[in-house]
């Protein structure tokens, strides 16, 4: 490895410009150049084998020029790439990209002393993301709507977005018009958009500075909403002010109407792939399953085609939507719903008795306390889903130390071009 100074006195923005050889990709997708002293310099948007010039500040480098590009480098799809923080990996070809994402999972398990046999990455393709949390600012030149800059707070005004579904990306201009109907807001508003099976749901927060929308504003926004093709629900600070139809999402044999602020898997194709992997892990004969952190039932309804399911979650609105959909679904085994904060009160070893499988899909923080209860239980099968390989590996260590054997581990590329990866891991109790 060589690091050569190209004019330490000038540099980019007062920093030292150096010539670097990129050795590998880091866990966040940055290229990594190794220092002779054992340290590292992280340079975004570079690839292993490349010789680049970068402006250095501490451990971070800003790419200035590529002198020798990698054969794995490809042209990015989006004009906003490198500025918009939504994507980190549009510059790498498909095969090395998939290998890197799989390796993120391998290394996370390795750090916990677990030699996991990880499947190849399951790809759901680009233009599949059905929901997005956008940021908006009101400026003298109009509404700026998009994602934050990479490692910054400036909002990038999106003219396109190849990771969103085409219909969702096409609504961006109309959303700017809707936001412009609000009283000019200070600071930053949050705009959550969802493409349901029958139209779009939009939820806007933090635009009214804590004030309630008056009748005139509600009426004006509702009229504007009617003019936006496909918009069927609009919520402001949690209150639904316009709805022409209840948004519905098919989950197995059920149709769920998600509340405006509820969690959903980011891509429909990924949700289907995850549910398929979970169901494939079940034995042929099974009668009772517990679904921990069930949400609105992304896995519950698929599980209920095979067995009776107890669904638990701390989000009461999500469970209400799940229960309502279950009452209207046909051809399913009974679904029982229970409100429970599994972080404060994990489902106990005693309560787990009689269940033949547990499915657990916690938030990014993982489920350490619940995993400890599972490790003490006699549940024969645990299927864990996580968007954070690090916390999944931590919880896997707990299960393995409790007598489970790690089986299939499958990464699913739900968050395309980012450094996030969804993972399904199957654990069977040793007899």
Describe this protein's structure:
- The chain is an alpha/beta fold.
- The chain folds into three domains: 3-73, Nucleic acid-binding proteins (OB fold (Dihydrolipoamide Acetyltransferase, E2P)), CATH 2.40.50.140; 99-123 and 263-429, 3-Layer(aba) Sandwich (Rossmann fold), CATH 3.40.50; 131-196 and 198-243, OB fold (Dihydrolipoamide Acetyltransferase, E2P) (Beta Barrel), CATH 2.40.50.
- 22% of the residues lie in helices and 29% in strands.
- The chain has nine helices and 23 strands.
- The protein has helices at residues 94-110, 166-170, 172-180, 215-226, 268-280, 300-303, 316-328, 368-376, 389-401; strands at residues 3-5, 16-21, 24-25, 31-34, 40-43, 51-57, 60-68, 122-123, 131-139, 142-146, 189-196, 199-205, 231-236, 239-243, 249-251, 254-256, 288-292, 308-313, 335-339, 357-360, 381-386, 404-413, 422-429.
- An eight-stranded mixed beta sheet has the order 8-22-23-21-20-17-18-19, with helices on both faces. It has a six-stranded mixed beta sheet with strand order 10-9-11-12-13-14, covered by helices on one side.
- Helix 1 crosses helix 9 (389-401) and helix 8 (368-376) runs parallel beside helix 9.
- The radius of gyration is 24 Å and the shape is flat.
Topology:
Elements: E1 3-5, E2 16-21, E3 24-25, E4 31-34, E5 40-43, E6 51-57, E7 60-68, H1 94-110, E8 122-123, E9 131-139, E10 142-146, H2 166-170, H3 172-180, E11 189-196, E12 199-205, H4 215-226, E13 231-236, E14 239-243, E15 249-251, E16 254-256, H5 268-280, E17 288-292, H6 300-303, E18 308-313, H7 316-328, E19 335-339, E20 357-360, H8 368-376, E21 381-386, H9 389-401, E22 404-413, E23 422-429
Parallel strand pairs: 8-22, 12-13, 17-18, 17-20, 18-19, 20-21
Antiparallel strand pairs: 1-2, 2-6, 3-4, 4-5, 6-7, 9-10, 9-11, 11-12, 13-14, 15-16, 21-23, 22-23
